[in-house]
Design brief:
With about 170 residues, this protein is of the alpha+beta class. Helix content is about 20%, strand content about 30%. It contains three helices and ten strands, in the order αββββαβββαβββ.
């Protein structure tokens, strides 16, 4: 388990993750929504050969921060991604009811161990891993995982992290 959440809080967080959808936008402006569904079911084509790890720097240690603080944390993570010459893909998580979002990165080319270390470095309870067989949440400190199936749906194409939410034509 994680050091910063009790078992009751962790159950509530896991329940909210099961209703999360992920927006992934590649450096080539391809955009998808990826949503958890029943384990063992996958719908859509997996876009790359390596797993994709969705990692945010928002609200470290499950403590709420202002949007300005979260954007600053995210800039630090973007600098880390850039220093390693990884593709800069957007990986943003959204509550299905629209109640929250956490901007992050969809990282391609990291091992699971490396991705968990990145999540832990930025104070995250868990990260997402999307691969051809499953969509999973992976506990950054405790090694646990929760597996889901997944469905991928196209979204309007646009560059990652477009300010103001404007969607230009492709």
């Amino acid at each position: 388990m994680t050091q910063h959440l009790g078992s009751r809080e962790l159950r509530a967080v896991r329940e909210s993750w099961s209703r999360t959808w992920l927006r992934i936008v590649t450096d080539r402006h391809q955009s998808w929504a990826v949503m958890p569904i029943s384990e063992g079911i996958v719908q859509g084509e997996f876009p790359v050969t390596d797993p994709i790890h969705i990692i945010t720097a928002w609200n470290p240690r499950c403590e709420p921060h202002s949007e300005q603080e979260n954007l600053r944390f995210s800039e630090d993570l973007a600098d880390w991604v850039d220093a390693r010459n990884l593709p800069l893909w957007e990986g943003t998580g959204f509550a299905s009811d629209g109640g929250w979002r956490e901007e992050g990165f969809a990282l391609v080319g990291l091992s699971r161990k490396e991705a968990l270390e990145v999540g832990d470095r930025w104070g995250q309870t868990a990260i997402w891993e999307w691969n051809p067989e499953a969509l999973m949440t992976l506990d950054c400190q405790g090694g646990g995982e929760t597996r889901y199936g997944w469905v991928r749906a196209p979204l309007p194409c646009r560059p990652p992290f477009l300010p103001g939410g404007l969607v230009p034509p492709c």
